[in-house]
Design goal:
This protein has 2 domains: 3-238, Aminohydrolase, N-terminal nucleophile (Ntn) domain (Glutamine Phosphoribosylpyrophosphate, subunit 1, domain 1, 4-Layer Sandwich); 264-433, 3-Layer(aba) Sandwich (Rossmann fold). α6 (134-144) packs across α7 and α11 (325-335) runs parallel beside α13 (359-370). It contains 17 helices and 24 strands. By secondary structure, it is α+β, with helices and mostly antiparallel strands. α13 links the parallel β21 and β22 (375-380).
Length: 451
Amino acid sequence: MHEECGIFGIYLDNEKDKIARLSYLGLLALQHRGQESAGIAVNSGSNILVYRDLGLVAEVFKEGILNTLQGIAAIGHVRYATAGTNNWENSQPLLQEFAGGSFALAHNGYLINQDELKKYIPLTFNSTDKYTTDSSLICEIIKTTKEKEIEKALEKTVSQLKGAFCLVVLTENKLIGVRDAQGFRPLVLGSIKDGFVLASEDCAFPIIGAQYLKEVQPGEMVVIENNGYREKQILPCPKKALCIFEHVYFARPDSNVFGENVAEIREKIGRRLALEKPVDADMVICVPDSGRFAALGYAHQSGILYQEGLLKNSYIGRSYIQPSQKLREYTVKIKLSAITSIVSGQRIVLVDDSIVRGTTSRNLVKLLKKAGAKEVHVRISSPPVNYSCPYDRDTPGKEELWTNRLSIEKIREWVDADSLGYISLSGLTGVFERNNPSDFCTACFSGEYPL
């Protein structure tokens, strides 16, 4: 069971009645990372209470539920199940007993050594069909360490894990964050009055009045207790493997991921794309929302007018983050509409973040031409996705990857674009200032897997 999720944690010395509401707000800010389920676990100082259910954050948590969740610390989770059944049992956080008491855990990532890990846990775990996630496997391994101190149990556990993972863990008196040795996924630490916050992205901080402190480093564990925090490097980091798709697609534009602002990076990608794949056109439009800043960059660099030619229905989720192709096709059709008065008779550059299955591009080109567009030139702000990603992303098998099966010209013909151009891999990785090209995992483009 792959998972692409958002995680959140908060520790406050006071304001027990506010902990759930602040967690709720933090999860709302991370809703783009998963829309299938949401959950919050709170620690009252003596026990841990978890509430989780299927649905969006605002659907799961009503006023009455939030009133019951009081404590000094909390963790939260929004989930996207990239494979398998979306059921309540797989929602998070998870509550688990261990030798030192109890803990709750929320996880973002995907392990690539599940079969090996299952050899070391009781047969009862392997025979229980409902436990299908990496998160439940991690919880079981923590339990089997027999350690009474959660930090020692976590150190022993993560040393056995292989793949991408960020964890937030809650005990009766501690909030802990852990990031894998390669740093595939982001995790950041912030400060708030009388406490601290952990989150997948720092876009969760302003809404609750928190300030960014630092990025949790690859292989690092951050332990928050007694209104303070301490750091410990528990895994060596021989080489970073930062997921570049965080900047291309996953992260919110106002987030700072891997030390660089997402909106600024996407704008630079668009500028580079305009240099590499120029075209004569009347206007540049984006596929909202993840294509917007790349489209602005393309327009700024090329001198072509930028316009909003597609209208997004704000009440429809992200089409990439849908668990089946049929749902993706349905979502694309209802979430975007063309503004005929703007696009009719125009030669259009349509900028999108990626082509994985081709669903969105084909439908949008058809939509724009039906609205009267004279030409539609598709420009993609990432290289062709040729390989499946085992670390987190729901890239399909090779048989579904269009760029692996077809030439760029054949894809252009299929989506019915007048031209099609992708940014180069060197162009994409070359726009960063604080990260070197070798710091990124680009396996879905190059086939060079870091693990």
